[in-house]
Write a structure and sequence with these properties.
Blueprint: H1 2-27, H2 31-43, H3 49-65, H4 68-102, H5 118-135, H6 137-156
Helix pairs in contact: 1-2, 1-4, 3-4, 3-5, 3-6, 4-5, 5-6
């Protein structure tokens, strides 16, 4: 948990610094600043987390039924990597929004109220609870079905309100 929080904080600070630099350059009228802002804004959005959640939940579903050795391969090479990608993408979004807020865009933090950011919490929460889920046979069976449903929902449901 400490490593995840430290990684989140560092990526958010780095993204905020780069966004602040881009916004400052754009404010002075240079077109390079606008390019930097567009690139940082294009890295991630709330919609990016749905396919990542589908892949993560599919990997988690496999970890529930695979033997320990195969499940550890899936954990280390898929689930853990996606977990860190989600943390880095969300930290980038938070850092960019913090820089926008610091440059006078008072409505920037309201973007974080998008309900699709709950996929970030779901992935991080499942990753932190994965050991407990693997230990109990009843929980493994229950979460195998839940992860399957979550995978299909993230892939095929539009989530439009």
């Amino acid at each position: 948990m400490n490593k995840a929080a430290a990684s989140f904080a560092l990526v958010a600070v780095l993204a905020a610094a780069l966004m602040a630099l881009s916004l400052a350059v754009a404010r002075h009228g240079y077109p390079f600043g606008v390019i930097g802002v567009k690139r940082l804004d294009g890295i991630a959005s709330a919609d990016t987390f749905m396919p990542l959640a589908a892949i993560y939940f599919f990997a988690a579903m496999l970890m529930m039924i695979l033997p320990l050795k195969a499940a550890s391969v899936v954990l280390l090479n898929a689930a853990d990597t996606i977990h860190w990608v989600v943390i880095a993408l969300f930290a980038t979004i938070v850092g960019c929004l913090a820089a926008r807020w610091a440059f006078g865009q008072a409505s920037a933090p309201w973007v974080l109220l998008d309900w699709r950011f709950l996929f970030v919490a779901a992935i991080v929460g499942c990753h932190l609870a994965m050991n407990e889920l693997r230990r109990n046979v009843l929980l493994r069976s229950l979460f195998f079905a839940l992860f399957g449903l979550a995978t299909l929902a993230c892939l095929f449901w539009s989530f439009r309100i």
